[in-house]
Amino acid sequence: MIVKRDRMQKVGRRLIMFLGFIFLLVGYVMAYQKGLPLIEQARASTGWPVTTGEVLESDVKSHRSSNSKSSTYSAHVVYRYQIEDKNYEAQTVWFGSDISTSDKSLAENTVKKYPVNQSVTVYYDPQHPVAAVLEPGVFMTTWFYYLFGWAFLGAGILMTGIPLFRSFFRLFISRGSQNSANIAE
Prior knowledge:
Elements: H1 2-45, E1 50-64, E2 71-83, E3 86-90, H2 104-113, E4 119-124, E5 132-133, H3 144-184
Antiparallel strand pairs: 1-2, 1-4, 2-3, 4-5
């Protein structure tokens, strides 16, 4: 009975550590592959050159998952601008504006602010003119991916760190007791 319980605990620890590594991987990708570059791009956008553009599309998109009764909303704004006789289209209102929320008024306010055919000021990346934004700088939603990624990283660190620490602690204690037994003999 004790052997079976020990085996179940060992399987449970390995499962938790496996899930912890998945959380670490997902957290790293969200925080450092998506979130941090977004924050850096948002900070850099305050110094980007400007040009004029025109809003082509502006509407509120509704998103509903198959297993949920609630919807989330996001603003869908497409604008065109021209750099050195070349036309570009972009959809970034501000960095982090692509996040859907249950608050429909946030998306509606963005759509009201940028109606179709309105002339807009476009901030574009001089190195990669395809990257542009209507509202430069860092906003609260810009931090979403970075902070959400760190929530996964924190959970992953706990899920992998605690079992590893316990294993090392048990190994240290068992070696310490063996050394004490050898010294006593």
